[in-house]
Amino acid sequence: MKTNRTTLSWLFCLITALLFILSVAHAQELPMPCIQTLEGHSSAVSSVAFSPDGKILASGSDDHSDDHTIKLWDVQTGRVQQTLTGHSDIVSSVAFSPDGKVLASRSADLTIKLWDVQTGRALQTLTGHSGGVKSVAFSPDGKVLASRSNDRTIKLWDVQTGGVLQNLGHSDYVYSVAFSPDGRVLASGSKDNTIKLWDVQTGRDLQTLTGQTGSVYSVAFSPDGKVLASGNEYLTIKL
Question: pTM value?
Answer without folding.
Answer: 0.80
